[in-house]
Design brief:
By secondary structure, the chain is an alpha/beta fold. The chain contains 6 helices and 11 strands. Helix 2 links the parallel strand 4 and strand 5. The chain is globular and about 75 Å long.
Length: 278
């Protein structure tokens, strides 16, 4: 049976994102949080492997105590265990510090539930949008990184081999690798399932496992949190949302509505066509 670890992140709802103009950081307080949807696609692929081949699926997230909600959602979908890695010392971490802590947490998880054959991450998070954490974790684990995966083509459970399709800028390629591997997945790899009532009831009762910095005695404190983050943000902003213009066309009958629409199209396009002919 496979052991699959899925890394997820609780992120601010992109429709509610605001930026602190002084710190150039996201304002998270008071903003609704969701599970990064790329990570949910990674979880879905892990659950499909569990359904077809048999696997233990462990979900790990690094974040504040409120990130327990993200883990419960993953449990409701079918994950076996959820681990929250949380500590004030982890606050302010960039992608380098984050991958270091998550890599350490995965190694600890392997001592509890066995070596991870597969690690799934989303290709990026919607709040950071860097795509750096997954490959960073792979380096920490000395695992083969398979990025931008849009299809798991084939898995050999006996020989621990996996074949995937990777999306490239100029096409795609099929890659086969020996496990363990880390995959960062695209959203078109699958469709995310909905939680059933038994899963939701189980998640409501489930208490995620919590690990803090104390649980990682080997952790180098100079490599975590703000102190261990060499990245600085020069500028952040939220794209301006422009409302699309439009006109409401109403009628009492479908025939009349169709006529009004065609008249509107005629009035809009014909002057341009006549101008082109002249």
């Amino acid at each position: 049976m496979f052991h699959i670890i899925v890394c997820v992140k609780q992120v601010p709802d992109s429709r509610e994102i605001r930026i602190d103009p002084k710190t150039n950081s996201l304002i998270r307080q008071g903003v609704p949080s969701i599970v990064n949807f790329y990570d949910l696609h990674g979880l879905e692929e892990a659950l499909r492997i569990k359904d077809s081949h048999g696997a233990r699926v462990t979900v790990i997230t690094m974040g504040p105590p409120s990130a327990e909600k993200a883990l419960k959602e993953c449990i409701s979908l079918g994950a076996d265990e959820g681990v929250l890695v949380t500590d004030k010392g982890f606050a302010g971490a960039d992608t380098l510090a984050t991958s270091y802590v998550l890599g350490t947490a995965i190694k600890k998880a392997e001592t509890v539930w066995g070596q991870a054959d597969l690690v799934f991450c989303g290709k990026q998070t919607i709040d950071g949008d860097t795509g750096q954490v997954g490959p960073g974790i792979a380096c920490r684990l000395n695992a083969e990184p398979l990025t931008y995966v849009n299809k798991v083509v084939w898995i050999d459970g006996k020989e621990k081999l996996i074949r995937v399709n990777r999306q490239l800028e100029d096409g795609s390629e099929v890659v086969e690798s020996k496990m363990p591997v880390l995959l960062t997945v695209l959203k078109d790899i699958n469709s995310i399932r909905r939680a059933g009532m038994p899963g939701m009831l189980h998640a409501a009762r489930y208490k995620p496992i919590v690990w803090t910095a104390v649980d990682f005695p080997e952790l180098d404190r100079t490599k975590i949190g703000h102190k261990g983050s060499p990245t600085t943000v020069g500028k952040s902003w939220v794209p301006e949302v422009k409302k699309a213009g439009g006109e409401l066309i109403a009628a009492d009958h479908p025939e009349e509505l169709g006529k009004r629409i065609m008249d509107k199209i005629w009035d809009t396009t014909m002057p341009q066509q006549l101008g082109w002919l002249s």
